[in-house]
## 1
Amino acid sequence: MYNFDYHRPNSVDDAVRARGGSEDATFLAGGMTLLPTMKQRLASPSDIVDLSAIQDMTGVCEDDGRLAIGAMTTHASVASDPLVNQKIPALAKLAGGIGDPQVRNRGTLGGSIANADPSADYPAAVLGLGATVKTNKREISGDDFFVDMFETALEEGELILSVNFPVPDKAAYAKFPNPASRYAMVGVFVAQVGGETRVAVTGAAPSAFRVSEMEAALSNSFSADALRGINIPADGMNSDLHGSAEYRAHLVNVMARRAVESLS
Amino acid sequence: MPDTGIGASVKRKEDYRFLTGKGHYTDDINKAGQVYACFLRSPVAHAKVTSINAEEARKADGVVAVFTGQDMADDGVGSLPCGWVVTDRHGDPHKAPPHYPLVRDKVRYVGDQVAMVIAESLSQAREAADMIEVDYEELDPVIDMKSAENAELIHEEAPGNLCFDWELGDKSAVDEAFSKADRVAQLDLVNNRLIPNAMEPRAAIGEYDSGTDSYTVYSTSQNPHLLRLILCAFVLNLPETKVRVVAPDVGGGFGSKIFAYAEETACTWAARKVGRPVKWTAERAESFLTDAHGRDHITHVELALDAGGKFLGLKVDTKANLGAYLSSFSTCVPTYLYATLLAGQYTTPAIHCNVKGMFTNTAPVDAYRGAGRPEATYVVERIVEVAARELDMDPAELRRKNFIQPDQFPYQTPVALNYDTGDYEPTLDKALQMIDYTSFSQRRAESERNGKLRGIGFSAYIEACGLAPSAVVGSLGAGVGLWESAQVRFNATGTVSVFTGSHSHGQGHETTFSQLVADKLGIPYENVEIVHGDTGQIPMGMGTYGSRSLAVGGSAISKACDKVIEKGRKIAAHLMEASPEDVEFKDGHFTVSGTDKSKAMAEIAFTAYVPHNYPEGVEPGLDETAFYDPLNFTYPAGVHIAEVEIDPDTGMTEIKDWVAVDDFGRILNPMIVEGQVHGGIAQGVGQALYENCVYDSDSGQLITGSYMDYCMPRADNFPTFRVGMTTSECTHNPLGVKGCGEAGAIAAPAALMNAITDALDQEIDMPASPEKVWRIAQAKIKQAAE
């Protein structure tokens, strides 16, 4: 690890100022990706702006039929939060299945979606529930947030404050973990929310995406059988040692069906 | 039965310190004035090193020294030796190119040591290493064994990148058997390459005392004396009196810490150069790159049978990957520890095996839990299963038909080994009963109803452990003897210190050996202390590998205890005014038959150290040393049965049940034995389903260089293992024990792969990853639909 200057501001304004004031500065949320990268000396930020002292970035509250979850809320907190378990149990289950206990106790919602790892779990929920990402500058629709592999709609220095999840009529998440890392090789979030049926996929492609054909089929008939035969093209899917593009494309259908089956 | 004696499941006494974070590992040791080493490693797989410019690094903050291969050459540092000379089929010794701790002319795998940077802090050493400029003239990397013979030359000394072309067995007898065969089963298989992944990474501290011109080396070693021998006699040319090697608590080895590596050698040498203790601890990425890897065979096997299913002959052709350099025992693993086991539990009368050992631009390959025997068992048990399917015979019954029968022991196999004892049918029967074999078809039908494929697989393994009679291994090329030492020292107040040449790095020796000594000497278990891992304290010993510690190390302890008892008998006879011949020893007491005279062992020990009333001609003290050289290998054997269910939609294999019935001979601590079986199975399952070391075939980069890509088995991958025992005691060691440390890893891969191939009705190589299994399952479904 290289040397860096460390900041631990108490407010969003101070955090943004600290981040803007230094060359190659970066925000530190849970650090579950940043710290290993720094330890391997693959990243060498000049300044670390640790967000952990900012109190109003943590916690869950109900706001006009939606759940607002602070960006610095850990996966473990989301997984065990009574409100999340009552209103969106699929989201609690998703958070409870991220990494291992150590990761869940450190990793945060905001950190995960800002990093936009193609195999992270949360992007499936943000997209699958049609959530809204609230930053220090604006509100970004979940549908517009994930741009590409490790790339989001966030501007330089823009800070996620919270994510607002609409409460769905029903929702479920099924994932096929990478056998080695246990990240999602394919994770599918299925939801009926606000009169809409949404199917969002993470892990399979460079960025989380929705599957309109499956959404249409499920709108017609919300059943696993309705998804049979809907094949996702393998073109553009991720491919690695653990799963070819073709295998991942196949698993999208399997996991989508399993998510729907879990609701019946 | 006493609750701490032989046969009792005593909880491990070492666990208190391990579980409370009070273990004392190499990295926990810090020496006054120590400096830190960082190795600059080759980023390319194969290249000539045309220049190394370390000027800037030498000037960097905190840097104490930068060393290259040239510095070591100037100092007369030698090559890391390979300790076993294999004679090839033409009568020539294997090709033994040098392996210098820091490269001198070429780099030969990604991770090869190019330079050593020593600095006041680790981060200063790392940063300085980045400043070293190395010019590489890249050469085509040789990664694939199949094409290695015609590829770029890795070592001038080894044309065709061939280390040896070796054979064992009677080829003409095998050819004749095949000519008479009614049936020949054949199979091509891969024994996948593994990375050991001990929990504790390798580490070393080299320390030099200029006052006495002597060295102390702290190292994560499974055999500190062997490391000392290699350092002194081969690499650094030092007298053994001037080097002490300490292997403190060691967190797992699985074979990978047997060998002498570049790093501890360099730290020892550099300690004198810089005049300060030099410390190095591997990062996990370095462990992946540079710990000696395991397995990595490609094999073609053919089994000849008569119409009734009797095995007539076995023919095996193997290419074994040795990596870029010969690690300490790399040559014996795919030869004498492999081909000698190809008889398995069967009476196959003719066996021939040819092994070509290949150099490639990959990390050195050497012993890994089982070392050759898992590869042999995998070949035998896979081909037996193929034969059963082709003959449409029950795989259990085909095995039974070919078992060596109890009245055939001692049994001379056609591949050199002489099995002293065994009883295979009761073991198979017990395993069949435990798994409820007769109702398997119902379970399979139930799985089918749920859209799943169920399979059952057997592995009737045998292994040779308790390495090994020194004269035998010497005649086969070993550079060392494989005896073991023990010193049993009574202290004046009745406690006992046992100094053993075995080394525990997870096996629980402190508990098992204490049970043995307490039982032998009739003293409280708590009064026994086991000391190991320090050449400054214990007699020359050979260390722990090959499931040898109890069979060889334990036998040495037993012999030393016998000597203690014999001396004690003389002292007791004097005190009781009897003749030594009339004194009996039992349950910790010397008695005179026909009288009520009795002396406790502790009293005798006290008398030995306070000899006021003492027999004439007997030396004071009660401290005896014994060496034990085994008469034969020991032959643990057993049957594992795995039952799996495959989800054809995802290709996921779930292990539904696992039965292991093993014959380890006499058992001292059943709980520790069962733990060893569990751990072995876990590693075997890891190999069969998850673990796979992959190098990029073009660049030679290690693709599976972290846990993101190298898949380790986890607790939730396993069912509850059901372990049973049968017993036929070893006939030639004083304890009747055989060894249990590797059996699980030897048995498990074949059992699991046979279950998977049974479910899929198609052969498949390890690891049976979900995608591979899914493709076969999908093809079957498609085929069935057509």
Note: Chain B has a mean pLDDT of 97.
## 2
Amino acid sequence: MTDAALELPRIVIRRRSRFMRKAFPYLMVGPAVVYLLGITLWPGAFALYRSFYTGKFKWDYVGLENYRVLLGDEHFWTAVWNTLLLGSITLTIEFSIALLLAALVYRSPWVKGWRILFMLPMLFMPSAVGFLWKLIFNDGRVMADLLFRLGLVDGGVDWMAHTFNARFVLVLVDVWQWTPFLFIILVAGLQGQDKEIEEAARLDGASFARMFWNISLPLLRPIIAIALVLRGIDLLNNMSAVNIITQGSPAGDTETLSYFIYRTAFRSFDHGYASAASVLLLIATVILAQLLVRKFFRSGTES
Amino acid sequence: MSKRMEGPRWGWIILSIWGVFALLPIIYFASIALRPRNEIIAPVPIYFPTLTTETWFKIWTEWPIGLYFYNSIVAVSGSVFICLILGVPAAYALARYKFKGNADIGYYILSTKMMAPAAVVVPMFFLFGKLKLIDSVWALMLVYAAMNLSIVVWIIRSYMIDIHPEIEDAARTDGASDLRILWEIIIPMCMPGIITAAVIAAIFAMNEYLFTLIIASKNAYPLSVALANFSGGSDGIIYNAIALVGFLAFFPALLLVILIQNHLSRGLTMGAVKG
């Protein structure tokens, strides 16, 4: 009786065909892959198809005209430039602050408390954060008033009329909300490092700063790379703050590529033209993704 | 005897400065939710307003906040459910089976996370238009699931790799089938990973802005985009409604994140950074 109960499943396994055994992992991973292909490949193909048409309320075939115009479009290149410029400035500032804060906190007994405190801005919806800072800078005039009280300005400040000011606002908003993202990752990376090496360095008389700079930081490099890749990708896609706070003003100087596509497609209703920009962005991100993903993440069962 | 490990003594000053910078706008935001409408925008900003919750009732009657909340909950939890149904088996196959293309499939799944949403937002609009899913929570659910599936697969995969293969081998010699091993051994053992993945996917879905903006137009508004709708003609933007809804979405996120705080960095890096 017990013998039979034990034997039965084994027979079932043996009976399972070679084909089934080979197919099993594919059947497990298949649905997810099909779903992702369906929601990336299909729209990609559709964008490519539509990019050969004008899309203002009716579809007329125009061949490569959209691309020709796009590559000569000053607004498009401004958007590309803004995306890269704002992204790299923001990333640099966020990383510097996050690294400083992480270095000061990672061996502190209060690290969990600091982490919760610093994390709070990250937990608000980006759209809510957009409106919060729109109120602080624009509609509520809080920032101008504070600067006035400190004697730094003599009256109102128009944050949206000057390129520098408007870009400053966008950078500040992102730094406020997303520095903790890098901070959390860096703290975890530092906490994972061997305490004894630090201890030994300290006993040898190295100052904390020296120890951190010469030992902890080089060891942290792979984690820094992953953190920067993830935040960098999100920055390239930044659009909610632009849409809510500046809407590209002044004169498109804060327009990011994502916002350019959104505006062209859903404000000017030029869907064909927006599709052409989408295709270029898609190609760029696919290439970028292939490079980054394979370099910084480990796949397969061997890891 | 041993030197201080914690770092310089003045460290807390810098940490406090950043803490104040992080906190002040939030306190201001809270005060916006708590003040009457005429004290929000004034010639000179009011820093110490009359605190009242009276406006909440007005906001509640003026806008269908209950509906926005319901939409958010349905779209977000539905998307997390899809992610887990598709993601757990995929993660298991990637973590445990040697098969041709394992690494490539893993990378493909991860690379969808790197794709710019703006690159597919225009065709997505037409796709959902054809399916008659514009302004539907179902469309939001499908998009959020697609957006988060890669994260969910990679997080759970990282936790599954950490489980000792001997445990499964023992079960296998006892005659358990692969699916039973997954269901009865692997899933319970990597529950922290599954919960982490679910929480992070839920928060990202809750925050999604671009797709939501083009898909939802009235009936399907979830909280993230409903905010922008709070403008009452001559009143301009109704900031206290925005602040109130902002906090309504903030508190659940805070609770969830505290729940998984020790897994947070691992979740945010898709398993690459442990701790």
Note: The radius of gyration of chain B is 23 Å.
## 3
Amino acid sequence: MIACRGSQSQALRIWIVVLTDLAVIGELFLAMYLAHTRREQFTAVFAGVFFGLLIPTIALAKLLLRRLAPPEASGDPPEAVSPEGPMIQ
Amino acid sequence: MDWLYVTMPIAGVEIFWPGLLILGLGVGIIGGFFGMGGAWMVTPGLNILGFPMAFAIGTDIAHMAGKSLISTMRHSKFGNVDYRLGVIMIAGTVGGFELGAQMIMWLERIGHVDLFVRVGYLILLGLIAWLVFADVLQKRRKEREARATGKLQPDAAGGIQWHKTFHKLRIPPIVHFKAAGIRCSMWLPVIVSFFTGWLAGILGIGGGLIRMPSLIYLIGVPTHVAVGTDLFEVAISGLYGAASYTYKGRTELVAAIIMLVGASVGAQIGSVATKYVRGYGIRLFFGVAVVGCGVSVALKLIGSFSSTWRGLLDAAATVLILGLVVALSGFIVLRFVRGARDELRMKRQREAAILSQR
């Protein structure tokens, strides 16, 4: 049961990462659209909208990921990449 | 849909900005996977999308700095970064980079920057392609010989092994690099990093394209540590380079941010994909991508000499470079998804077996 709960939590963490990535891309499109409507202040509008949305999104995602992290895990498992290396043996 | 085309505030050129996002995403996947900034695709890509060459270099370096930091943190968790080697290489990287950046400013003043950088790219890509294909052919020849003699060929024994010669240079101080598991003269990584730093400054690349093979073939670093250490070095040279080119007014920050969004997503996919994708054939695929990128740069170069064919050649170069990024990143994602699916299936089988035992 513990193993099942662990894999559920892991799946949820993956979903949070995926949704965060999609949200950030959505925020980029919104910032570019709004900046395009005020061309004389393009950079300021873009930066204001994009970072104004990005920072809370990342902070929320971090918070959720930390809450869902298994208690013993302080990082990713060290065996995630094999010693043979990624592409060349 | 005219808002998808914007005039960049500093460079003053009109750009199809989702193209920057796609370029960033693809290059992020490739960079995270191969352990390089992927800038050898980005600078020509930006130039082909419409940025003047000096802006393409500056913007590329700015986006690369952020992207490499993300990938370095990821690889660091896997123990793939030799920080001692990385720190020793910083001096050479920064010194070489500034020399390259000053050369670019001088070439821009005399009006030869585009020609010089494109020819430089052609030479570099040609060398890399040769190195990759020669290595693969040598490995296959050794495998054939091993089969003929009936001896098993260990995977690690194949390919070019120049580092064994370079390790015979015993110029003090001799340093032991724990994560990489090698002992060599400190001057070897310093010289390699100075040269790669110079290339980074002059071509707007992180240097990974040449540094990663150099770490493997000249210094003898295992591939997985070369990937992580190279990304650490790319992040350092990228941060220094971004500051240097921004100070010189040649960085388009909005474009860099757009690319960074794509690249940060791509780098996560690419670095995790290293867990699932193995095999020497990947090198061959990478070599083909390098050749394709070289052809794209050549088309752009030829187009600059012919006013009649310029439009057609430029369009062909754009399709080729974006097609390459999409094909290579698509291949990595496909293998990643397949590997992850297999892993999940095995995990479920293990869990089911444990439950049935109870």
Note: The mean pLDDT of chain A is 76.
## 4
Amino acid sequence: MTRQSKDPNGTLMMSRRGILLGGATLFAGSIAASLCPTLSLAAVDAGMQGQFMKLSNLLIQHQLSPAVGARIAEGATAQYKNLPQMLEAIITIAEKNKATQVEDFFADIPEGELKDFALWVIAAWYSGSSSDKRDATVFTYEEALTFKTTSDILTIPSYGISGPNLWTRPNLPLSAPMPTF
Amino acid sequence: MVTKTSADVVIVGTGVVGVVIAEQLLDAGHSVLMIEAGPRVSRAEVVENWRNAPLGVKGDTSVAYPSRPWAPHPMGNEKGDEAYLQLSGPDSYAQTFIRYAGGSTWHWAGTSWRLTPEDMRLKSLYGVGRDWAFDYDTLEPYYVRTENKLGICGPSDPALQWPRVARSAPYPMPHLPFSPGEERFTEIARTLGYNNIPVAQARNSGMPYDGRPACCANNNCVPVCPVAAKYDAETALHRLEKKGATILVDSVVYKVETNAQNKIEAVHFYDQHKETHRIDGKLFVLACNGLENPKLLLMSKDDRNPNGVANSSDQVGRNMMDHPQLTLTVTTKEPFWSGIGPVVNSGIMETSQGSFRSEHAGAYFRYNNFARNRFVTFAALKKGLVGKALDEEIRRMTACTADIVAAHEVLPDPNNRLTLSDKTDWLGLPKPHIHYDVGEYTRKSAEVYSLPIGKRIAEAMGATDVKISPKFNQSKHIMGGTIMGNDASNSVVDADCRAHDHENLFIPGGGAMASTACGNSTITMVALAIKAGDAIVDQMRGA
């Protein structure tokens, strides 16, 4: 039989509702994750997740979302068989250096598997993806740290930060302060 | 097989060409049925597809538009036999287009450069290519109607307009403001004697238009404007339905049927369950642009039309054209901060014109205004930096790298040809095969003209590094394939995009264009569609 098109508004309304419901769920999930990382969406052992966030906070001195961290930890669990040992090893190096920032201990991480893993964790937070390939797992788009480094001047594409025709402004010099994030 | 009498006019394709013609016919009181191969989706779905794509592939527009099995279109991850487009030749005719309701304006940039009078007379003026079947003055009123239909903004100052000939009416909206990086690029271009002017673009400037909101610089025109401030044909579909159009989706037309008088009698299509259907009508419009139209015509060969429908000239599928482009990725000391405002907002057009066109192609230069995070983040990460050094490197590379694109014209060459591949798709229909060579005319331009200009611009920008595309990339501006002309022996359609061979078949759009010039083709496709629409209304009236 010949089919007529569906009015997309019905679909759109459903989608909006779905998005709203989904957003509410995600928001609740984020709040729960913020308050208690063990309740995060990822099916990762709570101790492992805590270790992962501990390592992440040693490697990156910015505010890190536990909800995003839970997703990255889940990806790391799938990708790295000896994840617990690697987390422990790098955290031990940092603690031995009494590190308060990544620069205090990163050079002491041995080249090879451990260093590669540390760089993977950093890349995951900054790119929001498990790799630069098409089949990469996406951990986040909006919260990828790359966008935080330019948030004072650039929008995250698809999100507007100015009003109609209101983007004329002086250019920022490179010496302008890095946004706080 | 289900046979159904449908409507006065059957339009195959729901992209911008089909949509503007449909509205003309509906407004003139005719019934219209539109047939779309692909699905109809919500804007929210497309936006979420894109946001959920990995950062490293966000430059591939196809990630936002996964093709359906029955309506394949090029996907960035498909290679070789698996790919929809089967390609051969010295250059790759690797296009992207979308078989979705609304068509490929979903992911166009909105750039709307008109042709110049000279662009339409290449043979007469420069001894190359083809002349159009009519002149610029004939086309100009249709450009004005296009600009009003789509909502194209542009400068009111004649010195900033393109082409530099008098307009018969102003743009419906003022041009969009430049970003700081574009302002700086414009200053630099001026020191070399070039004028970087505001692009006319189908984007709402400072005000709502046609029920759509003003642009708020989401910097995501490609692959989708999340708020529909940029015109795309999807935004018109609901209005067409309110006016009485019937739109069939997931319906793949595979045959155009002729009758004993060699008029078009019906079209046949598959649904997504591989069931066949037949739709008849009084008049037919093929609005599937330069690849799907010739493919469909070639698939439809019959005893009366052994080379394919509308193909007594043997020109269907020949003269495939585009705007081959070369990109200069520059690294500068000075920050330009691409990514503020729409993704394409200006251009240098005067370099597309000149007496040199008897020897080689012209080129148009643009400053790509995409935010650079997606392009530089992995490169910064691969440097092994951490902490403050990593933050600063990402910020520096985002601010201090930019893409300058040189888009060239090509000449119509019958050897650049679409044929039917022996590879088939999910429905068992042949995939298009395209043999393509940009030609010496374009290659010489790159060697002696466009790249030297591009390098001078890069130098003036203070570039410390310049990386140039190793080969021509395609602009996704599909032209040729059903070329227009007054001589039925060497062209497919007449000056109204009516098939020479079939009086009730119209094939408007980029396929009809007899020259490419250097600017994006959509505005000219739509102008041709409106001109065809007028002819169809007259023909239906019996004039």
Note: The first helix of chain B runs from residue 16 to 27.
